[in-house]
Amino acid sequence: MRRIALTFAALVFLALPAYAWNKPGHMVTGAIAYAELKKNDPATLAKVVAILKKHPDINRWNDLINRLEIAPEDRDLFLFMQAARWPDDARGTTYDRPSHHFVNIPLKPGATGSPAIPVGDSILVAFDENMATLADNDASDSEKAVALCWIFHLVGDVHQPLHSVKLVTAQFPDPIGDRGGTRFFIKPKANGGTISLHQLWDGLIIGSQNFQTVRNTATELRERTGLQRSDLSEIAEKDFLKWCSVESFDTARDVAYSDGNGGPLQGGSTKPQAEVLPNGYLDKAKAAAERRVILAGYRLADLLGANLD
């Protein structure tokens, strides 16, 4: 019966709309950060865990720990995973902040110069606000725990390229553009279903929220040749804005919206107009996504170490 229940839960999960990354993708980022802190900065790890234990959802997390029979030595890792996905779990509640997950920097093919950064509520504003709350001596323990979860999540979101841009073309005109790829429809395979480009990128890392599967994915990425800290020249960049407006913007332009052969990716503005992805696109997209998610995990660990010392 337990196996049947878990299978049913997995099927329900797969039927839900994906967020950025999807929830398991955020859990991977949390697991990478946890492993980095456990290895290199256990003092900061202890501080983070202590803050998370003051979170408004701690009782639900503890119930999950017991229900899923998470081993005592893995419970802090589980908290990191839950913290990273929590802002998506909180959708529809008083903690929901839909505009805090993205910023729509206009991506106009052929345009020169630096892109214009939109003003107003966005992932950029949310990051600064939550960092300020974490540093505020007058903030309650609960407020700091909520802010910490948002920081986990926003670092993940900002590394998903389609959370930083909107494509603006004749097909997708201003002011909406393609809304971060959510209005850009494609077919991963000729005989497959139609999804948005945004959905595709959200799910490139992992599709299962199983604890062991998430941990194994995080471990494999950390140990893979080419994804070590020393292999990632970007790791020296500490500016959240540049993670968004330079790195994710460039990845969106050069990979997400490219056909891989020097031309623009073709997609439909409605589902019936969806185009099939070109050969090789998925391999290049997955490689780029994995580089972004490992960077997010490393950078989250570094950010926590720098601000909770």
The helix/strand series, from N terminus to C terminus, equals HHHHHEHHEEEHHHEH
What's the CATH architecture? Orthogonal Bundle
Strand order of the largest sheet: 4-3-5
Structural class: mainly alpha
Could you tell me the CATH topology label.
P1 Nuclease
Distance between the termini: 46 Å
InterPro entries: PLipase_C/P1_nuclease_dom_sf, S1/P1nuclease
Keywords: Disulfide bond, Endonuclease, Glycoprotein, Hydrolase, Metal-binding, Nuclease, Signal
Organism: Singulisphaera acidiphila (strain ATCC BAA-1392 / DSM 18658 / VKM B-2454 / MOB10)
Pfam families: S1-P1_nuclease
Search tags:
309 residues, 11 helices, disordered N terminus, globular, two-stranded parallel ribbon, mainly alpha, disulfide bond, P1 Nuclease, three-stranded mixed sheet
Describe the model.
The protein is mainly alpha-helical and 309 residues long. It has a single domain (18-307), classed as P1 Nuclease (Orthogonal Bundle). The chain has 11 helices and 5 strands. It has a 3-stranded mixed beta sheet. It has a two-stranded parallel sheet with strand order 1-2. Strand 3 and strand 4 form a beta hairpin. Helix 5 (75-89) crosses helix 7 (141-158). The longest helix has 27 residues, at 281-307. The protein is globular. One of its GO terms (molecular function) is metal ion binding.
